[in-house]
What we know:
This protein is mostly beta strands. The protein folds into 6 domains: 37-190, Lamin Tail domain (Immunoglobulin-like, Sandwich), CATH 2.60.40.1260; 210-350, Immunoglobulin-like; 382-537, Sandwich (Immunoglobulin-like), CATH 2.60.40; 557-709, Immunoglobulin-like; 732-899, Lamin Tail domain (Immunoglobulin-like), CATH 2.60.40.1260; 942-1087, no CATH class. Helix content is 4%, strand content 31%. The chain has 11 helices and 72 strands. Strands 63, 64, 66, 68, 69, 71 and 72 form a 7-stranded antiparallel beta sheet that branches. The longest helix has 6 residues, at 458-463. It is globular. The two termini are 24 Å apart.
Amino acid sequence: MRGCTALVSSVVIALPMAAAVAPAKAADAAAQPGGQVVISEIANGGPGGYHDNFIEIANWGDEPVDVSGWELFRCTGTGSVASAPQNTLQGTIGAGERWLFARESDQSTIADADVEQRYTTSLANESYGALLRDSSGEDVDAVAIQFPGTANQACGEGTVLANTTDSAAGESFQRTQDTDDNAADFIRAPRTPGKDNATEPSAAPKRGDVLISEVAHTGADGEGLIEIANFGDTEVDVADLRVDVVNQFGRRFAGYAWAGRMPVEKLGPGEAVVVPRDEGGRDFTEGAAGVVLYDASGDIWDRVAWADNQDSAAADGTPLPYASLDATGGVSYQRVSNTGDNAADFVAVKRTAGAIEVGEAAEETTPEYTHEEPHTTGGANVLVSEMTNTGPDGNGDIFLELQNYGDAPQDMTGWSVYRCIGTGVRASVPQVSAEQLDGVVLEPGQRFTAGRSGQAGADIRAAQDTTFDISFATQYGLLVFDQDGKIVDRVGSAREDVESFCAMGQPLPGVLNGLHGESWQRVDITGDDRRDFIVAERTPGRRNAEAPQHQRVDSPVKITEVTNGGPGGAGDNFFELTNTGDAPVDVTEWQVYRCTGTGRVYDGMLQLNLPDGEMAPGEVFTAARTGADSTVEHPDATYGTSFNAVDGFGLMVVDKDRNVVDSVGVFDRVDSPCTAGEPLSDTLDFASGESYQRVAFTGDNAKDYVRAMRTPGEHDPDVEAIEVQKPKMGDVVINEIAAGRPDDKGGQKAQYIEIINNGSTPADLSGLRVDYCAADGRRMLEPAAVVPDGLSLAPGGVLTVARPEAGVKDALATDATFQQEGYGATITDAAGTLLDAVSVYYDDVGKVTNAPEGPCSSAGVPLDRRMRFTSIEEAQKHDYAWHRVQSTGNNWADFVTAPATPGSADGPEYRDVTKPVDGSLDPVEVERATRTGVPSLSDGTPLTATGTADADVTAFGAKTAAIDWSKSAGYIGASSQAALDTRVGEGETRAADVRKMDQAQDTGRAFPYQRFELAVERPKDSVVSIAWRGHSRDRHELQMYFFNHTVGQWQRVDTAAGEDGSDVTLVGTGAVADFYRDGTVDVLVQDGKRVADPFTDSDGETNQMFKTPGEYDLAIAHVTDSQYLTERGCQEVCV
């Protein structure tokens, strides 16, 4: 708290002749480097293909420029500047000279001899650009080409360029002038890399009598439609014409031919002809479409594009909408005029393929609703309406939507939206910034939609008002802040056991199915996420659904066996389907999708298309991973992508209508639409050949499957289940473990585990098996060691299993290796009983709960790889290991760190760390640290002006200066900023007499200040010094600032802190050229945030050390996560 903080002072003006500071030197504008070096041409593709891209810079000046150390950056698809440069420049670029930088690729059509340097990262499809930065880090020039609504505007100057270059035609953007406005400075023209730029833009399409007359990107049969027609009154030869299409980004490249020739040679007046796609011809790409009609010489006759909120090389004027065209319902775009603007020249009507006549108007379908949307009264009420973290096109096919559910407009100026990240906490940067919401007013019922830049689907792009450039994590959420920083709404999606800062009540589960384009949609306003939101097919820009929608059907075809690895390794995976019914089932056009390690599923996760036909009752279908790792013999089908063996996976079978027939999830702490009920644990033992096999049909994965020895191709509902063992924790246990030692003792390969007999009788270890676990938690395929027959361990005796590098005498040798990223070990007796397990995975707070499950992690909380040092390497350098001190079955409670003692039973003794060591909490008195004395004013011959007991203003020095008190002024105030962000503070009070200043006092959390406008005669020297004497409370730091008129801001010149509110003297010196204006020196003294380091050891190494007690008044311990202490059983530290 800063309440009642006050400043009491007296002021002295000093104009010394000694200790002069050199005056600031004005910059020489004529000497500014690089003023004439510009980005002169850019293309993100060319005749050679997408990678045939380049950037050209030129020196338009009349003097050479040394560009050594300059950097050329690309601008990313989201409008940001790339983190690393494309190229670093060296040398001098002569007057009039051009330097060419081109992509290193076989597609490049630019000769090496013409290239200054090549780069390895292509310019993006959707939005791109270039930025030139000099050796001091200053931006010299920039150009940006962007889709509408691109999230960032970090590149470019003025109005950016539309992404309309035709790469197949070899177009680029070329500079014709330099007005610092990209749209005015560049033209689109045939590229001229290394040569003089074009002066005229590319020719417009011919747009004669023969035009594109009807288009659709798909139809009821899945085929697109392209029709051309002769709108003139004479016959036209069309034999030489051909048709290209564009990709989903509106780009046209060589090889994008729909048809290489027309189906007719001539087209009579009023005739129309459908152009069939060549066999192997390029089809339309989902998301956006466009058609280019051109002749053999490359001259374009006509073009049309339909795309939502993006540009296209096929567009004339404004593109037509894409998402709203009901192409599968028989609607197409048909020409009605020829103005050169697609949006004006075409209408959406019923198809009339092969006829020039325009079809009938398409019927508009409006969803029927049974009740009103949720709403409130009493003013505006902007809430999250809809959100999703996945979609048909993947995890970037996403959006968020706000809606005003109130009865009054809401000005969104100053508002912002933040996302919650995977751990449930708020992100550090906004998802939708205040700048993006500036001036936006939401009327009652109005929506505001933001889509993922460059990745959102066409339906989202059609509705979006803005974009964002960071996708949502598996666990995510939204926080809506108003202009005052108050949270007005929050909604979170996370696992049930994760506490999400975004959630209202219990978080929403991560069950959205990307295949179906599902989202979370608000249907109520109760303040409980799980009551307020439902899952339904997404509705960006439209009214939300009223009821949940689930596309799941019953079928006797079930997933009966699955695994994500086997004896052959992680690539030895398969799945099995069985018709468990008593009638055949037609599986024509059925598909199998996999869910990723994040639990999500979308179009790109297609695993397999099932063969067309029927599955007979009892028939089993087995599909396995291709490759040498697979041990499945004669599968019915193979696939090329393994299931995730680290983070888990899922399977989803869908019918021809994409209804979910069956699904299963194998995950630890991951929600997924693949999971039915509770998931199966991702802990199958690959080495022994475990799989999950169906034994029931309850609809809950955890109840319907058991762990068993795999039987691909054979479904046995009575299969014998394998029970997961817990460590026996008897006499024979793991006593010590280390994944490395100091370099002089073998380094990181000096690994070992030590086994001890804690019993009172000898233990026969014959056949005892030692297994290591990998960083993913799974047991390695081969044992680390097997104890030979006849080996007995005496009471208190130890057996060390070690690599040769460890140099342990009489050790049982192994060549197995612990992975430094995480490791563990188990010991199993000859009968297969798990005797003990230890795991070392924990690395930071987040990984306490995210350490991998597995046989090594079966004994409580895993241990810390760092052994309480700063890193595992630091622990190994100090030769530390984990030692057992008790046997409770919880690793974290049972092991402590201590110096390594391989081959010896010696080790630390158990101590209950929850009980303080005797005397450790006894009170102790510490002397307060002595601080350096505050400065005092220099001795001199002062000329003292008339003052009071409260203020004494003095001018002193070799020559005195008169103070004009009638023109001087003092002000008292408090500000939320320190220093003030303007010369004059808001709401400050003028003192009646500058020589008798009142106390400056805040009323809450503001920083009190005294501000002076001191009228003095112009100093005879180049510097001016100011001294202030006064105090604040306790040890608050006081800061003196001069107002620098050259840069227009307050500049700190001195700081000091007293003891118990004692007086301090602040003395600052500054250049007259900067701080003296119109006979006045502006001075600010403020009790601000501490900037001087309070500790004497700040420059030294203080890691893991306490500060000197005498240097602080109060210490507060902050426990970041109480769950962290709960899981560790308060074994390390409790506050």
